[in-house]
Amino acid sequence: MRSPGGEARAYEMSDQTWRPKGDPPAKVQFQHKFFASMENPYFRISPETDKPGMYFRLANNAVVLNFPGIKREFKLAGHPDEVMLDWIAASLRFVKALMVGDAIPAELRTGEASWQVEPRHVQVAYSKLAGQLMGWITGAGFDVTDAKMLEDMASDPAFKEEITEAFDQAAQELGLAGADGREQVVRYIERLAAEWAYVEAVRERFAKIVKLKAKLAELEGKYRNDRMEAERIARCRSLLDAGVEDWHARFQSVDADHADMMSALRDVEAKILALRETRDDLWQRMLVWDDLIREWDFAVIKRSNEALNLTDKTYRFLAPRFMEVDEWVLNSTLVDDSGGVSGVEW
């Protein structure tokens, strides 16, 4: 059993209660004079609370206000700005920050993604989906997930020939006759690959999380003669192992849920909607890792306060997401008001 909230900001996308009713606005804009009185305010998820907040500077001090407090203080109940704050909260599932005048993310306006994939992701997705179709034809199945292998397959003449045959048989199954039928199947696969590419892009980012395991192991080795610090790093590494396992299980579930290509080809529009829901769920889960991954990308793995501080930060990120509930609650009660830790080594 994990912590009470599970993974922060990781919601079931099929639960639409998080989305305000009605059509989204085109961009962030307010009517109340309070918002115009602040210089360059911006909105983001608080790393301390995992809740949306408004950030600005006041008399050289950094200030953050939570949304319920803003609504209450300025009596925004029933006001258009209350709805705007709700749309911003929904938007922060897909982007890290918003400023006044920024566009509301495309996920909320059109269903498309607000972030980009690379051509290689589309190629990998096409090979995977075409391979799944071929597996349906042959009855042999197709469970290749390695991106490099899928890229290599795309340029393999034998694979291309087998795929062409699979397209012909799929067209017949769908009642699409002749060469035009095969081309229609190809277009279906291309449309689905354009959506599945986002899954492959998140999978590629996940590889960086896996690499954190090696970095923590290397850092632990640097402290092998310091038992206290080595155990401190080992506890973090254990939580990271749980996080990696969670991601592995998530991708296995996604791959299984979208493995039936013939069902997808029979209702491409419905499949696209399902893939976008999957894309959004994976993206919002990955987004919260980005800053941590970036810090480790630039970290020097050596005995240093910087390395230990980053390890502590990683532990604090992982603990509420992947620690068993009883242990997480115990550790939380041992954190003093200043944010330090008393009675437990991190």
Describe this structure in words.
The protein has helices at 33-37, 67-73, 80-91, 106-109, 119-138, 147-154, 157-173, 178-222, 227-257, 261-266, 268-287, 290-298, 305-322, 325-333; strands at residues 42-45, 52-58, 61-66, 97-99. Strand 1 and strand 2 form a beta hairpin. Mean pLDDT is 86; it is low at 1-15 and 332-346. Strands 3-2-1-4 form a 4-stranded antiparallel sheet. With 346 residues, it is mostly helical. The protein has 14 helices and 4 strands. It has 2 domains: 16-109, no CATH class; 121-333, no CATH class. Helix 5 crosses helix 6 (147-154).
Major β-sheet annotation? 4 strands, antiparallel
- The general outline is flat
Please write the string of helix (H) and strand (E) elements.
HEEEHHEHHHHHHHHHHH
Please estimate the helix content: 55-70%
Number of helices: 14
Mean of the pLDDT scores?
A: 86
The main sheet orders its strands as 3-2-1-4
Concise synopsis of the structure shown:
The protein is mainly alpha-helical. The chain contains 14 helices and four strands.
Q: Features of this protein?
A:
346 residues; 2 domains; 14 helices; disordered C terminus
Helix-strand layout with pairing:
Blueprint: H1 33-37, E1 42-45, E2 52-58, E3 61-66, H2 67-73, H3 80-91, E4 97-99, H4 106-109, H5 119-138, H6 147-154, H7 157-173, H8 178-222, H9 227-257, H10 261-266, H11 268-287, H12 290-298, H13 305-322, H14 325-333
Antiparallel strand pairs: 1-2, 1-4, 2-3
